């Protein structure tokens, strides 16, 4: 579903929040969160980036534990590949927000709905 009545400035802000994460804080901490489109995408991208950070920390801990037992250099490359794929997905989400589309990120939107954010 697309929204043709959203300003291009808001679409760009939402796309940047998916691609880089930090602009989602701007959306959440200002009056931009009151706008339906930017509030939805800002909240969703913030939850997504929090999830990315959690995944990164868990991967680092697992790699450190495995490396304390046996050194496997492929784990570092695998972690980089996972992070690259997650960032590419974030860019895809940013593109979809830039064209004015409402969409749900799997697991993230479920978490938002359970928490009561933008029902």
Summarize the structure.
This protein is mostly helical and 119 residues long.
Explain this structure to me?
This protein has one domain. The chain is built from five helices and no strands. It has helices spanning 8-20, 22-29, 36-69, 74-98, 108-115. The mean pLDDT is 90.
Tags for this entry?
119 residues, mainly alpha, 74% helix
Poorly predicted residue ranges: none
Shape: elongated
Number of helical segments? 5
Gyration radius, in Å: 16 Å
Secondary-structure map with pairings?
Elements: H1 8-20, H2 22-29, H3 36-69, H4 74-98, H5 108-115
Helix pairs in contact: 1-2, 1-3, 1-4, 2-3, 3-4, 3-5
């Amino acid at each position: 579903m697309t929204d043709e009545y959203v300003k291009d400035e808001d679409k760009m802000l939402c796309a940047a929040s998916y691609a880089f994460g930090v602009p989602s804080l701007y959306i959440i901490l200002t009056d931009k969160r009151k706008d339906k489109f930017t509030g939805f995408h800002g909240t969703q991208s913030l939850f997504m980036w929090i999830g990315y950070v959690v995944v990164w920390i868990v991967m680092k801990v697992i790699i450190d534990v495995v490396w304390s037992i046996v050194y496997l250099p492929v784990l570092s490359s695998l972690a980089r590949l996972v992070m690259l794929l997650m960032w590419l997905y974030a860019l895809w989400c940013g593109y979809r927000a830039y064209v004015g589309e409402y969409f749900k990120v799997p697991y993230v939107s479920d978490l938002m709905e359970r928490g009561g954010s933008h029902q």
